Amino acid sequence: MEIIIGKTAGFCFGVANAVNKTQELLKEKKYMYCLGELVHNKQVTEELKEKGLNIINNVEEAKQNVIIRAHGEPQETYDLANKLNINIFDLTCPKVLKIHNIAKEYSNKGFYILLVGAKNHPEIIGTIGYCGKNATIIEKKEDTKEKMQEFYNSNIKKLLVIAQTTYSIKDFSDISDEIKKSIQGRNITLEIKNTICNATKLRQEETKELARKVECMIIVGGKNSSNTNKLFNIAKTYCKNSLLVETREEINVNDIKKLNKIGIMAGASTPKKSIDAIVELLQSI
Ligand code: SF4
Prior knowledge:
By secondary structure, this protein is α/β, with parallel strands linked by helices. It has helices at 13-28, 42-50, 75-83, 94-108, 122-128, 144-153, 169-183, 198-213, 226-238, 253-256, 272-283, and strands at residues 2-5, 32-35, 53-56, 65-68, 87-90, 112-116, 135-138, 158-163, 189-192, 216-220, 242-245, 261-266.
């Protein structure tokens, strides 16, 4: 059996940085609190909890030290932590910070902002906080018409479109095309900034290429991870026999033992050891 592991599988730069720095902090500090799970991966979360990390939902629950994870937080979180004299350890990914800065800049310039992404995802909850009051979220292509109408109703003539760092490249391109079509004949200044991060782009492209070549695609990662689910959707489009698993125990060996070529890809929050465990299982067949 040939096993092809995606070169881009596993921790991205932002997640690796957040996990490494948190591990260092846990060695130094007595009380360490993280606003939400550091990464969307059960195994990593459990390991960090065992090392003393407390997961909280509100900054008020942090006794002394709070970690802001790679997804980022709105300005109010920083303000509240400062007011409560809580030390902030800001591990927001630089690529997310860049989007916050774009959002602030364009909001100050009077643009209406369309933020493309999942409204309940922590990154989007953080980013929308920097978009000002003239902003809305587009979750999927089907919502574009309604959201454009909201924009027209605002009577603002300048529009900025940005995306969640882990959004699907194809879906963002489709939504952008629809927006371009919608403004035709109207006097609107449109700026589209594809803020999907490079790590996401490369991983999605590699998943597509790999899925085309193999008989089965195994996507490893948290089922609550947005970027992992996107990879699974891409894999399914090009390889019907695709699986999404968090651990090797979820793989039914009988289903795959006769296959000759299997591809493995993993989300940005999947640790190397989860990938290694799957490879080991496949090699043992
Ligand atoms: S996916 Fe991209 S933006 Fe998100 S943490 Fe990783 S490197 Fe940063």
